[in-house]
Structures
1.
Amino acid sequence: MLRVGVAGLSHLGVVSSVVAAAKGCEVVAYDPQIDFANGLPIAEPGLAELFAAHRARLKPSTDPHALRACEIVVCAADVPTDQGGRSDLSAIHRLLETLISYAAPGACLAVLSQVPPGFTRAFERQVQHSHADRGLHLYYQVETLVIGQAVERALAPERIIVGCPTAQEPLAPAYAEFLSRFACPILPMRYESAELAKIAVNMFLASSVCTTNTLAEACEAIGADWSDIVPALRSDKRIGAHAYLAAGLGLSGGNLERDLVTFQQLSQSRGTDHGVVDAWIANSRHHKAWVARILEAEVLSKIDRPIIGIWGLAYKPGTSSTKNAPSLALVQALRGATVRAYDPQARLDPEAARWPHVRQVSLALDACQDADALAIMTPWPEFASVDLARVRELMGGDVLIDPYGLLSGARCAAEGFRSIRRGGVPVQPLMAKVA
């Protein structure tokens, strides 16, 4: 039976461990600080069931000696970023040094963590210089983690991109066997090409996000409706049925902005053009401030010390992460108001906790009490089935900002709300609130 080690039990590492076990491998899940023998440290749709079905082949360990038995060791630790999107690679360097020391001679070492172009080549030279006698095979594998869809994407990837010393060099037999279990195209290429391929995917996604939000804003300005236009784009073969065309609040999460910043740094150091990337980052900041601009026009400019309710702090549904979340940009912009915020999973980060004007509540309806406006900053499914009549009774104002169009405009109007969404014409209330 193929033995695989997964080192660094980040969100990516935990999912990778469980999926490798589901593919029939004996798995050592190594992390010096995390042992999930008695339960998973993360939540992800389908993960608990997959873990329960295959946990007999999964051995969590905090001892790096356990990796000695593995033919393949995958480095899946998280790469943290600062507020500017710049990666801190120090922890990855330390973990890889550990893996080199404890991996069996001739083992395959695959870097699944997201690293900048040039990282794997430089590390390979270090391995060849200091550990040539170990006969290790080093690869960079592009991760495809999407929180909320991590299990399905890991079990059935569209393709697997593998960075190799040269594009022509065949994969080591153990690694080739492991990848073949995913029954998808394998795209081997040079280290640098694979590292840039990951960034390229996110750059094309960022261009779709920014273009969509720019056009949605134009719709608001001229009285068009973005939802009318989307079918025309999806039916164009040059754009396609799976294009990202959901209007929203800029780029959020850790990966997109990190890759844009990485490309900026790469471009600056090599003298290539990065103007379009600069524009995407500026575009994202502009659209993250959309809710704040609406609130300024509809509430803040008209009411002293308003109360604002916020539904959703996470950067997207299905996660507790607030990394680059539009909600935090809004909270910062509302320092002159009283803010009540609710999220089913996310909690305000330590920096946000210092803001005295914000109180996080435990129920969605609690955020509505006496609110002059309510803003849905994360489209959690539970918000779509809320009792709008009860929300309207609790609120003092009638402004409901729904950027993602989670709620029916007709339903909002029937309950007396002024409903405003991205890319659409504001919906006026059909009735006034009865005193």
2.
Amino acid sequence: MGSDNTITRLKVLLGHWVEHNREHGQEFREWAGRIVALGESEAGDDIVAAAEEMDRAGRHLSRALERLRSEEA
């Protein structure tokens, strides 16, 4: 696989990963709310922290994607 193909493939993957992380983060927050409602606030806090880490990872992946896109211009 040539470098152009690798970059093209990675841009597709990065877009997928960003969306996938966003969806998981939302789902984590929904479940955190449910478990907190059952009195498990510490577990809920941990799940929210995981969602925040997903957001952080998504920002890094988005930045990588933007860098790759800007190099093609």
3.
Amino acid sequence: MTLPFSVHDDAELELNEAADFYDLENPGLGSTLIDEFERAVATIREHPEAGPGILGKVRRWGMLRFPYSLSVSSARA
């Protein structure tokens, strides 16, 4: 079962700013960040209980190549 999700406006802004920064440092790296984010979201939607619990029903999923993580709140978590 795939769960619906939404991205907080501030998180989306931060993600886009980070992608722009990485592209300035190394062209194409921003796209890699967005791709990794999208893979993380897809994994979380398929397996919402996979990340470690950090607070109540909130779980964290770390990105492998970048110093970011996604915090996810789910009724199933």
